[in-house]
Specification:
The protein has 425 residues and is mainly alpha-helical. The protein has 19 helices and no strands.
Length: 425
Amino acid sequence: MGFFGLFNVHAMRNNLSVAIVAMVNNTGEDIDATNQSNICPDKGANSGSTASSVKKGIVQFWSVSVFIVFFAQNGVFNWDPMQQGLILGCYFYGYIVTNVPGAWLARRVGVKKIFGGSMFMSSIITLVSPVSVYSSVELFIAMRIILGLFQVDFVYQWLHKLLNKTILSRERKYINESIGLNEPKDQKVHVRTPWKSMLTSLPIFGILCGHFASNWGNYTLLTMLPTYMSTILKFNLSASGFLSSLPYLLQLLFTLVGGYLTDVVRNRRITSTVVIRKLNTTVGLAVPALFVVLAGYIGCNATAAVAFFSLSVAFNALTVPGCKANPMDIAPKYGGIIFGISNTIANIPGFLAPQVTGILLQDSNSLTQWQTVFWISAGVYLAGALIYLLFGSGVEQPWARGEIKDKKQAFENAKQMELPRATKL
């Protein structure tokens, strides 16, 4: 059920990236005809019957089999690139707001209630979105923002609870003792979350930058690659949707293999934790930077472009056993909190990257402008890799051991220490 929940979340999040290709009228776009490098031969972008194009557009947009809205062959919405960037990214305005509150609410109310309510409301919003888009673009944007608000990361809370229920008591004891959760506690002494130390920690800053850089490139391609496939490489809607999914199938494989190999390296003590984390993160950011730039300069060689995009997205997966897993190394007690903060900041590229792309394409939807988009992604990738190399750590931080105690108890202890002195005086 956790898997199907996340499956639905990502389906409703990403369906618009492909559907917008069929929704927008691209016949009037101005591409510099004097620059032949900006023009690729037509591979069937406008081929096929109108009925076939309509069906494809609807299937990509609707997450369920309800067909009540029909799009024209070239789309009926005259949205410029800046508007398209806003529409594709506005989901994340709502999504980043509910990351931390969603986890807190799941603990207070119950994960199953949040699970069911979130999926129900997300489904309703997705169903009415094709109707709202005909009313006004502002209403459609509002619906996408609300959709993001409801799609919180509650599943991780549920899986954590289910782990707690199924493991053996000695396993739970071992895990808790390993991170210092079974230490005797005085009822009057409460360990406080070291917020100041966390927010000023350089290793955490390195994690945030690596996570942010990874998501910038990922979200740029996730939201904009179908449009690039259709408008620049001239694939038809069906082909652009299929080819845009190939990089993420390869990313799935790299995530599994990369995580497994990282565990092997750590278990056999081939190298230290910090070395393998930095190696994964550097490769997971530098290699994608290289291939995303090459994809922009390969011209109209569609096979090579798809291969380069696939390699760029696939190697990005190595940041998962890299900087994204690092919170559990430096602060096992507060790993969930740190990842929540990191994931919130790292989802800012969800709306920022498409908006920047839309601004760059405002004047000309050409190959030259797309190359600039890919160079920006490469720059963000390399900056994140450099910062993580400088500040990343694999050692548990001193502030993560829970040494900050309750002020009231500290005051009472100080009074007891001063009492003999006062009596003597």
